[in-house]
Write a structure and sequence with these properties.
The protein is mainly β and about 60 residues long. It has one domain. The chain contains no helices and nine strands. It has strands at about 1-5, 10, 15, 20-25, 25-30, 35-40, 40-45, 45-50, 55. It is flat and about 25 Å long. The relative contact order is 0.35.
Length: about 60
């Protein structure tokens, strides 16, 4: 799982599988973070808010 704040975040050629979290089962970003995801697979993740990716800002 990735938990990122206030910095550009790039995910490329990755797999997120079976992650569990309160926010964003695979990725959670906040505080004006820029998120770029390319050629990445998400499967079997769960969260109370944002099962694959959660963001407290606008995506």
């Amino acid at each position: 799982m990735i938990y990122a704040s206030a910095a550009p975040t790039q995910v490329t050629n990755s797999t997120f599988s079976g992650n569990t979290a309160s926010y964003g089962g695979g990725i959670y970003t906040y505080d004006n973070n820029t998120l770029t995801v390319t050629n990445t697979t998400f499967s079997g993740s769960s969260a109370s808010s944002g099962a694959t990716a959660g963001c407290s800002d606008t995506l």
